[in-house]
Amino acid sequence: QVQLVESGGGLVQAGGSLRLSCAASGRSFSTYIMAWFRQPPGKEREFVGGISRSGGTTYYPDSVKGRFSISSDNAKNTVYLQMNSLKPEDTAVYYCAAASSLSLKVVITGRSAYTYWGQGTQVTVSS
Q1: How many C-beta atoms lie closer than 10 Å to residue 120's C-beta?
Q2: 66-81 b/e with 16+ CB inside 10 Å = b?
Q3: How far apart are CA 108 and CA 114, in angstroms?
Q4: How far is CA 24 from CA 32, 34, 43, 86, 120, in A?
Q5: How many angstroms separate the Cα of 45 from the Cα of each of 21, 36, 92?
């Protein structure tokens, strides 16, 4: 098992930046594909970025590509989501998630593949 704790959310003006952190404890961090999802008010939870077990593959949906960047620090068992050029539509609760995988290279975008979830951190972007 792995436990995930997010931090770094807050209120920011449109065009600003935030960096979210997800600290993992328990089973070895490198065992999992790590990802960030978000859930805007009244909407479904959606994938916003993922990183493979090796760290060599990342993937983003078009809605955040070029603005969001995911990275990991295996020594600290922490994954980050750097969010730049934030827009009001980025307002959501952001969740860190982990999925078991035998592959070192793939990123999974489907929510159902992720077994472990953090408690979420609120990001609010004002216009």
Answers
A1: 18
A2: ebbbbebeeeebbbbb
A3: 9
A4: 10, 10, 27, 26, 13
A5: 19, 10, 9
Residue-level pLDDT at 26: 86
Among all chains, which residue has been given the structure tokens 């065009």? Answer: 15
Give the whole-angstrom CA distance, residue 124 versus residue 26.
30
Q: Which amino acid is at 99?
A: A
Cβ-in-10-Å burial (0-12, 13-18, 19+) of 119 comes to: exposed
**Nearest residue to 17 via CA among 9, 29, 5:** 9
Report the sign of the C-alpha dihedral through residues 58, 72, 38, 111, in that order: positive
User: What does the block give as tokens for 67?
Assistant: 């603005």
The β-bridge partners of 46 are: 38
CB 51 within 8 A of CB 70: yes
What are the tens digits of pLDDT across the range 75-109? Answer: 899 999 999 999 999 999 999 999 999 999 999 99
Is the distance from CB of 121 to CB of 94 less than 8 angstroms?
Answer: yes
